[in-house]
TrEMBL record:
<dbReference type="InterPro" id="IPR001938">
    <property type="entry name" value="Thaumatin"/>
</dbReference>
<protein>
    <recommendedName>
        <fullName>Thaumatin-like protein</fullName>
    </recommendedName>
</protein>
<keyword id="KW-1015">Disulfide bond</keyword>
<feature type="disulfide bond">
    <location>
        <begin position="140"/>
        <end position="214"/>
    </location>
</feature>
<keyword id="KW-0732">Signal</keyword>
<feature type="disulfide bond">
    <location>
        <begin position="177"/>
        <end position="184"/>
    </location>
</feature>
<feature type="disulfide bond">
    <location>
        <begin position="167"/>
        <end position="176"/>
    </location>
</feature>
<feature type="signal peptide">
    <location>
        <begin position="1"/>
        <end position="24"/>
    </location>
</feature>
<dbReference type="InterPro" id="IPR037176">
    <property type="entry name" value="Osmotin/thaumatin-like_sf"/>
</dbReference>
<feature type="disulfide bond">
    <location>
        <begin position="33"/>
        <end position="225"/>
    </location>
</feature>
<dbReference type="Pfam" id="PF00314">
    <property type="entry name" value="Thaumatin"/>
</dbReference>
<feature type="disulfide bond">
    <location>
        <begin position="74"/>
        <end position="84"/>
    </location>
</feature>
<comment type="similarity">
    <text>Belongs to the thaumatin family.</text>
</comment>
<feature type="disulfide bond">
    <location>
        <begin position="89"/>
        <end position="95"/>
    </location>
</feature>
<feature type="disulfide bond">
    <location>
        <begin position="153"/>
        <end position="163"/>
    </location>
</feature>
<feature type="disulfide bond">
    <location>
        <begin position="145"/>
        <end position="197"/>
    </location>
</feature>
């Protein structure tokens, strides 16, 4: 899904012209949990959301590897540095990178070839908060992950405030697929997640049943605790 790094100059200029006339996508992030969630986005930063509050961000067309997640049980020191039980991003309220597992992820690659957005909910970095991701226009399907994953988390994967992905815990190719396609597949652990969240990206090559598309230019809504 990534663009090649060495585009010929003319192609780069065309791409810039194209993006200049394409609108950013809007993401409405809503906390329906009965606890505070410190929402986070890369790119986009972060914000505290009490129960019922929402936050709207825009993400530039052509952005790949965008993700939105929630952090739980954050505390702040006198210097404003935060420490969150799940999803922490180096102590920053406004994240400048990804969060620490376990964290349920909404992932996006916008305005890809054929004018498509790609999106999914992933538990490849574990699960902390139930999530729903809905395209708000263009009639595309929503994805949801709200099964009892924390409650039923296998002992080996249990983590304060969430349930880890086995790759985080064991760090071997069987779970991480670092050696690429053909070297890994679904496992007992990935099936544990898939059974409870069938729409969800449950191991690193789980594209077939969990990567969705919508026309570029779509806006999205992300709900914590749908
Ligand atoms: C939050 O919701 C859960 C599940 O519905 C419930 O068990 C819990 O008591 C609620 N907590 C508060 C603080 O309202
Ligand atoms: C926050 O931490 C408290 C105390 O450890 C725990 O009871 C509670 O479930 C946690 N809240 C969330 C949202 O994880």
């Amino acid at each position: 899904m990534n663009f090649p790094e060495n585009l010929p100059l003319t192609v780069s200029l065309l791409a810039i012209t194209f993006f200049a006339y394409t609108h950013a996508a809007t993401f409405d992030i809503v906390n329906q949990c009965n606890y505070t969630v410190w929402a986070a986005a890369s790119p986009g930063g972060g914000r505290r959301l009490d129960q019922g509050q929402s936050w709207s961000i825009s993400i530039a067309p052509g952005t790949t590897q965008a993700r939105i997640w929630g952090r739980t049980n954050c505390t702040f020191d006198a210097n404003g540095r935060c420490q969150c039980e799940t999803g922490d991003c180096n102590g920053l309220l406004e994240c400048q990178g990804f969060g620490r597992p376990p964290n349920t992820l909404a992932e996006f690659a916008l305005n890809q070839p054929n004018n498509m957005d790609f999106f999914d909910i992933s538990i490849v970095d574990g699960f902390n908060i139930p999530m729903e991701l809905s395209p708000t226009d263009n009639g595309c399907r929503r994805v949801i992950c709200n099964g009892p994953i924390v409650e039923q988390c296998p002992d080996e994967l249990h983590s304060p405030g969430g349930c880890n992905n086995p790759c985080t815990v064991f760090n071997i190719n069987e779970y991480c697929c670092t050696e690429g396609p053909g070297t890994c597949g679904p496992t007992t652990f990935s099936r544990f997640f898939k059974d409870r969240c069938p729409d969800t990206y449950s191991y690193p090559l789980d594209d077939q049943t969990s990567l969705f598309t919508c026309s570029a230019g779509t806006n999205y809504r992300v709900v914590f605790c749908p």
